[in-house]
Predict the 3D structure of the following.
Amino acid sequence: IFIAVAFIKERDYPRQFLGVVLATLFFFSTISHKEFRFVQHLMPICMVWAGLGLHWISRHIERSSLYTIIMLNALVNIIVAFYIGFFHQRGTISVVHDLSSSVKSGDSVVFLTPCHATPYHSHIHNAEVNLRFLDCSPDLAGLESYEHEEKQFYRDPQSWWKKFSGEKKRVAKSTEYVVAFEENLPHLHKLLKDSGYKVDRKYFFAHLLVDDKLTSHLLLYKKTWGT
């Protein structure tokens, strides 16, 4: 709102900076992979223009109304920051935090989630714990039919798991954990349960989802191998 006010009322300031913001947002909106960090560098420009808008408002309304606007703006930002900081997409952090205190040497953890969805080594520091996540490495060889592992998995989760499960080595008296989002992989979850994996914990992830590979809940499966 403050930026819009500045754009309309503060005509003495160059508009090229806002053009840079709009052009950058348009460009990054056209690519398939989107992250907030891609547009973070626009924040200083936006803050300057928001300040100009607030300055114009402060000169044209009563002081009591100005204080009300500032307090409402602060309240909205506090509520949003609290939700994003403590609830939104919390599940992928919580599951790795819990695993860090549960896994022991010889155990393994398989993350059947989109690439880089979990913190990984920032929480689990035991080098003797086998960690495995879906690979998203780019095609460095120039192969026309190249398809990275994440795409292979989501194209046919059951076949991928059967192949992976048949190839991996198992350690006696070890525990294997599998992390996967709940609602979008029903056949995989049935396959895991039929293979002896049991749901150990369930984590809330998000209300607002930005990708069809993400769902509102995350499941942690557990299976202990005998001698």
Summary: The beta strands are 108-112, 130-133, 175-181, 198-204, 217-224.
